[in-house]
């Protein structure tokens, strides 16, 4: 007769233990033939009943949410797809007519490639892949309105006025008081819409962050160029990655096994980031119920308020007075995702897109297996 | 010293060599001292019209160059 595990035991099974020097119980164990007599074969209905999504923060360029009840392999697949496989538009080719600044052409081109762009979602969805010209197919690889966007950059630095040069000779060094156009920013890249782009893009294509410094110039220096932005994926080059950050961490847990009181409680709270541990007065009820709290009524006691904010620094384990009173850990199937979009997608839509892409991949594998068996 | 002595004549031909169509075109240089732009035609002395400095810099080509933003 198989033993049916208690809820408490199930919780302990998926608890990663974080000790002073070691991390234990890190591997998952919810698979068939691990626990005698228990069936852990994967089941869609069971997964549906257990799986939960909880949003902590959902802003356009910054989202934080929890996925509870799934395996690391799946959570990690989402993370990797977010970073490397969701397409965005980025500057790929730079045509330089004139560049007399001190930044070398190839360095300037590289800098511009890394500038994140943004536009209306509808327009970006409409854009298709640009294909490089091939030897076999003459005339292929033409940039068209549906696969390439053009932006221009034209700038020349001049003296601010006729007297500026004299002020410079007298020792003035503030560039704002001497030169015009001495700093060229991402916002100076101007979109030149062509063909259908005029209708398809509801908002103009522009750099997400207008104040990225591209070049500094001095009087007489000039830049004249245009660039082509195409769709690509992060696997090809990091500039195509739609996220600045796409990462997850496991939910931290703090279990206070013996009460921490008075001055110790204050010190204990200081071992954690603000808001994780709070101090509460021991109530009459608690004092009468628990032996350790007898006669401690009204004293301050450390309680866990918000373990999610903990950085798991293990500072509390360094102090001998807390060593045997607290257990640190993480929940193996509670993933706290943080997704920061670089501008082309809303952060929450990015995650949904990663789910969609994983689904497409699975279907491809399924078709491959069917073809192999049939 | 007359500036005429410094006219550039690499082939050793006389200054009165046959005039080609090229000779009519002027090229823009930048003075090495006062930063003024100097238009020079073929055979003219290499000298800034503004300050008389004899070092002139050739300007970068206007021809388009293509780069990959990688
Ligand atoms: Zn000069």
Automatic annotation (TrEMBL), chain A:
Pfam families: RNA_pol_A_bac, RNA_pol_L
A molecular-function term among this protein's GO annotations: protein dimerization activity
Domain DNA-directed RNA polymerase RpoA/D/Rpb3-type: start-end pairs: 62-368
Subcellular location(s) of the protein: Nucleus
Main localisation: nucleus
Claim: Nucleus is one of the keywords in the record: yes
Organism superkingdom: Eukaryota
One Gene Ontology cellular component: RNA polymerase I complex
Keywords: DNA-directed RNA polymerase, Nucleus, Transcription
One GO term of the biological process aspect: transcription elongation by RNA polymerase I
Membership in a protein family: Belongs to the archaeal Rpo3/eukaryotic RPB3 RNA polymerase subunit family.
Protein name: DNA-directed RNA polymerases I and III subunit RPAC1
From TrEMBL, chain B:
Annotated localization: Nucleus
Domain of life: Eukaryota
GO molecular function, one term: DNA-directed RNA polymerase activity
Statement: the UniProt record of this protein carries the keyword Zinc: yes
GO cellular component: RNA polymerase I complex; RNA polymerase II, core complex; RNA polymerase III complex
Cleavable signal peptide: none
Comp. bias intervals (Polar residues): 1-17
GO process annotations (BP): DNA-templated transcription
Region Disordered: start-end pairs: 1-21
Keywords tagged on the record: Metal-binding, Nucleus, Zinc
InterPro entries, sorted: RNAP_P/RPABC4 (IPR006591), RPABC4 (IPR039747), RPABC4/Spt4 (IPR029040)
Pfam families given in the database record: Zn_ribbon_RPAB4 (PF03604)
Predominant location category: nucleus
Family according to the record: Belongs to the archaeal Rpo12/eukaryotic RPC10 RNA polymerase subunit family.
Protein name: DNA directed RNA polymerase
